[in-house]
Amino acid sequence: MEDTANPATAPNLPEFSVSELSNLLKRTVEDRFALVRVRGELSGVKRHSSGHLYFALKDADAVLDGVAWRGVASKLKFRPEDGLEVVAVGRLTTYPGRSKYQIVVEALEPAGAGALMALLEERKRKLTAEGLFSPERKKVLPFLPDVIGVVTSPTGAVIRDILHRLADRFPRHVLVWPVAVQGEGAAEQVATAIRGFNAIRPGGRVPRPDLLIVARGGGSLEDLWAFNEEIVVRAAAESRIPLISAVGHETDTTLIDFASDRRAPTPTAAAEMAVPVRAELLDRVEEYGSRGRQGARRLVAERETRLDGLARGLRHPRTLIEPAEQRLDDLGERLPRALLGLTAERRRDLAEAAGGLRPNVLLSEIRQKSERLTQVTQRLAPAALRRLDNAAQRLTAPGQLLESLSYQRVLSRGYAVVRRAGELTTKAASVGAGDVLDIEFADGRVAAIATSEAPALKRRAKARSDDTPPEQGSLI
Q1: Which of 210, 275, 338, 442 fits 170 for a cystine, CB–CB 3.0-4.6 Å?
Q2: DSSP code of 140?
């Protein structure tokens, strides 16, 4: 019996080249799986510079490579990310260059709203942990901005609603940065617009906005997904210009709402938050002006009433001046008489003083003073000499006393000073036989040599010799 399992025994099998076999497999797979719907988890999502999207669909047991060409990838309503469960619709094909099969996606959508909500909650927790939603980051909106920047689609009803509402309330200068508000690239455009408005320098040709409004009409979660992207949330949080988010309707919530400085339920409400009502401001100013004028009139009236009350308690100024005028008249009448009396009194004093200033009296007093001066001068010289003699005696007396007590005066009375080896010697016991002595007399010095010791020295020497014990004799 022929063994069909042995390749060497099957010479009638057709022979294929590698390319022929790969193409045959490709046609077979494409014919058999021309349109499939696959559910799986995204992994290894990568967007090529060409715009194509490469990824893998996986479950617990298998992995399927996938690709979405640029035309399909640009129309996706959400941003594919790793870990997101999706449903892909497309056709299976093979890639002969690597002997792999893959799905070419024609449509891609999240696997129900639950998957998007799970991704949204995870992203919200991440950004909250980074502090992007912290209340301390919120900035105060300007009361009346001069320039308002609006980031929205230029063709939708949103921009018309905002402009119309601003015109009704308080017309302002509006700059519109046109962006796509859904689909591929929408998040990048919105983030670029926010950062672009912040990059405008004050004082340039294009005025820098004082307030930003990011707006979009309502839609599904997938339609609003661009405003949940990290790039948009981070741009809103980093904006140095106060920002109002007005995305969707009142019940719609996106992550940009948490990062913005103020959330508006609708784009029209954002315009109302941006500016006050001009007519109301004018009415308020008029009201304040009227109240100010009324208050001023009331204050003046109160001050006048108070002044009248105080004035009634004061006497007439004339009654205060009249006594002073009368006193002035009285003093004016008394002044000439007082001056005449004072002049007469001063004349009497002068006459009395002039009586003591006669020449004879002055000459007599001068002669007396001159005689007194002559007497004092004659007595001054002897007194000065006596004081000098007394002082000289007081100065010479201590010197004479010191001289009488000096040892030279003692030597003149028969005494002498003995020195041994240059030191003063006062006791004979300190001199030994043969010592050279220097003896000073009143009229000079003499050198001498001691020929014997003092008796005291001899007695001490003998006592030392008597105390020496006798030597012990030999017994042999």
Answers
A1: 275
A2: P
177, two tokens: 């940065």
Burial group, residue 434, by CB count within 10 angstroms (0-12, 13-18, 19+): exposed
> What is the DSSP pairing of strand 53-58 with strand 63-68?
antiparallel
pLDDT tens, residue by residue, 349-389 = 888 777 666 777 778 888 888 888 888 888 888 888 888 88
What would you measure as the largest C-alpha separation in the chain, in angstroms? Answer: 195
Work out the mean pLDDT of the chain and round it to a whole number. 83
Contacts with 114 (C-beta within 8 Å, 6 or more apart), sequence order: none
Rounded Cα–Cα distance for residues 174 and 252 (Å): 26
Say yes or no to pLDDT of 476 above 50. no
CA-based nearest residue to 152, from 255, 231, 268, 242: 268
* Sheet containing 262-263, strands listed edge to edge, beginning at the edge strand earlier in sequence: 173-178, 147-152, 211-216, 243-247, 262-263
Q: How many CB atoms lie within 10 A of CB 184?
A: 21
Other CB atoms within a 10 A radius of the CB of residue 292 amount to: 10
Share of the chain above pLDDT 70, in %: 88
Whole-number Å distance between alpha carbons of 6 and 8? 5
For the whole model, what pTM was predicted? Answer: 0.47
User: 90 — phi, psi (to 5°)?
Assistant: 180, -160
Count how many Cα atoms sit within 13 Å of the Cα of residue 297 in the half-sphere of its side chain: 5
